[in-house]
Amino acid sequence: EPEVTQTPSHQVTQMGQEVILRCVPISNHLYFYWYRQILGQKVEFLVSFYNNEISEKSEIFDDQFSVERPDGSNFTLKIRSTKLEDSAMYFCASKRLAGHEQFFGPGTRLTVL
Amino acid sequence: AQTVTQSQPEMSVQEAETVTLSCTYDTSESDYYLFWYKQPPSRQMILVIRQEAYKQQNATENRFSVNFQKAAKSFSLKISDSQLGDAAMYFCAYRSSISNFGNEKLTFGTGTRLTIIP
């Protein structure tokens, strides 16, 4: 069964550094999402992406964040200058055109030191 | 804005018994979707069950069923014949039915950690 994959599984970075989190959505899906989960807290929506543009973003998704679909398979989340509070689990999700279910990847744990 | 509340941070149940996880939500919309997602220790979230608000009939998926009370804005998950593999974090989630090119974000509750006692 097709799955959403994410790399790396764990990323450690220094405060102020740029990180790129990568996701490969399910191949026939057209809607893509990023969520994050700070340890012990709820999963929070960051951004949704459709037709090569952002369709909605949360207040968390400020100018430090950007998303891109650089080719036909990858979907990336970039954090330009990481802060300590960016430490969290980041989940990518995708959804097909007429579906209701968002399929989640296993997540990338980002640790900012 | 919609909010989702899960008032039980942790629950435990004996194997083969039945457990109910609670979820309440707040919305001004009349049509929406509700979901229960399971997050096992491997961390990947998996959809357990979905309920459309316009449907009066409660959704059922094998051992999993919901009690959807629209007027009370309540959406509980019942797990029958609990198995060790059911141990996980369970998240209740809300999604508006208003679609705008994929902006159907999920709003999650804080989760309930379910432990299965052998």
List the SSEs and their pairings.
The complex is a heterodimer of chains A (113) and B (118).
Chain A: E1 5-7, E2 10-13, E3 19-24, E4 31-37, E5 43-50, E6 53-57, E7 65-68, E8 75-79, E9 88-95, E10 103-104, E11 108-112
Parallel strand pairs in A: 2-11
Antiparallel strand pairs in A: 1-3, 3-8, 4-5, 4-9, 5-6, 7-8, 9-10, 9-11
Chain B: E1 3-5, E2 10-14, E3 19-21, E4 24-26, E5 32-39, E6 46-52, E7 60-61, E8 64-69, E9 74-79, E10 88-96, E11 107-108, E12 112-117
Parallel strand pairs in B: 2-12
Antiparallel strand pairs in B: 1-4, 3-9, 5-6, 5-10, 7-8, 8-9, 10-11, 10-12
Protein architecture, described:
The complex is a heterodimer of chains A (113) and B (118). Helix content of chain A is 0%, strand content 50%. In chain A, strands 2, 4, 5, 6, 9, 10 and 11 form a seven-stranded mixed β-sheet that branches. A four-stranded antiparallel β-sheet of chain A has the order 1-3-8-7, with no helix packed on it. In chain A, strand 4 (31-37) and strand 5 (43-50) form a beta hairpin. Chain A starts with a strand and ends with a strand. Chain A has strands at 5-7, 10-13, 19-24, 31-37, 43-50, 53-57, 65-68, 75-79, 88-95, 103-104, 108-112. Chain A is an all-beta fold and 113 residues long. Chain B has 118 residues and is mainly β. In chain B, the strands form three sheets. In chain B, strands 2, 5, 6, 10, 11 and 12 form a six-stranded mixed β-sheet that branches. Chain B has a four-stranded antiparallel β-sheet with strand order 3-9-8-7, with no helix packed on it. The chains are: A mainly beta (113), B mainly beta (118). Chain A binds chain B through residues 30-33, 35, 41-45, 48-51, 55-56, 58, 89, 91, 95, 100-107, and chain B through 33, 35, 37, 42-47, 50, 91, 95, 100-111.
